[in-house]
Design brief:
Length: about 280
């Protein structure tokens, strides 16, 4: 009998807002379908996130687990009940942590589909000795307990929200792994270095600063830095403004101000080239 073809599919999990690749022989799976899979945490219900592919795009050394089956009505009902119970469990966990004077803020709880394990996610400034809390929670819930500490960026991804652009936070909508974001990315884009305005809900620099960074680096090649001294048509000026998208700039000295195109500046001006090192560009905040 001929073997069925293997397909690869991205499965997204609601609480973590992350997607992982699984394999399946079910050629009829489509985006939005609910399926049951086995992860490191146990049996979980996830949602198909894309069309089936014949190539995983991953290294052959990576073991890709199979989709066990489509979720039936009973499993979906269990999953929904688990979500309700998890809210109560989160409150219990926070109360017990407070009773033990543990400096931690519980932000989520999640049962595996078979209720063999419950994962509590929490925020804390430092390391928390939760050994006693584990014993208390195990006695209350009678299942395996996993306590997982996350940072502020992870919390924003899990909780979600609306950004200054008016859309759902990028981390909640599609970002799977966080990239390093540098203050130099804001400098490259000639943005005012107001950290409060450049920071997201998590308090760190907004992830979207990275999206156009390469384009701005390319556009600024060969140009002077802001506030650099330039000589234009025999007169010395300082670069006080620049718009690399519109390709314009502003030059000023004590006597006058000039508005001209970057092409004119490059053709007729004398200045030192903006040549930041890669190390400076990659510095994290």
């Amino acid at each position: 009998m001929e073997d069925k073809p293997i397909y690869y599919v991205s499965i997204r999990f609601e609480l973590t807002n992350k997607s992982y690749t699984f394999q399946t022989e079910d050629a009829d799976l489509k985006p939005g379908d609910l399926v049951v899979v086995e992860t490191q945490r146990g049996l979980e219900l996830g949602r198909v996130n894309n069309e089936l592919k014949r190539d995983s795009g991953l290294s052959d050394e990576i073991t890709i687990k199979p989709v066990l089956h489509r979720a039936d009505e009973k499993e979906i009902a269990i999953y929904e009940q688990n979500k309700l119970d998890a809210k109560e469990a989160m409150a219990v966990c926070q109360k017990e942590a407070d009773d033990l004077n543990l400096d931690m803020h519980v932000i989520s709880a999640e049962y595996t589909l078979d209720r063999m394990k419950i994962t509590f996610t929490y925020l804390a400034d430092g390391r928390v000795d939760f050994r006693e809390l584990l014993k208390v929670l195990a006695a209350i819930f009678h299942c395996r307990i996993d306590l997982r500490q996350v940072g502020a960026r992870d919390k924003s991804k899990m909780v979600s929200g609306i950004g200054v652009c008016g859309r759902e936070l990028c981390c909640a909508r599609f970002i799977s792994e966080f990239d390093r974001v540098s203050i130099n990315m804001a400098k490259n884009q000639l943005l005012a270095l107001n950290v409060s305005k450049l920071s997201g809900h998590c308090g760190s620099l907004m992830c979207c600063l990275k999206y156009e960074d390469e384009a701005y680096k390319e556009l600024r090649k060969g140009l002077p830095k802001l506030n650099a001294q330039v000589e234009y048509e025999g007169v010395k000026y300082r670069v006080t403004g620049m718009n690399v998208i519109a390709r314009t700039c502003k030059l000023e000295n004590k006597e006058s101000a000039l508005y001209l195109s970057l092409e004119d500046l490059m053709n007729k001006g004398k200045f030192k080239v903006n040549d930041k090192s890669k190390k400076e560009d990659e510095k994290a905040e």
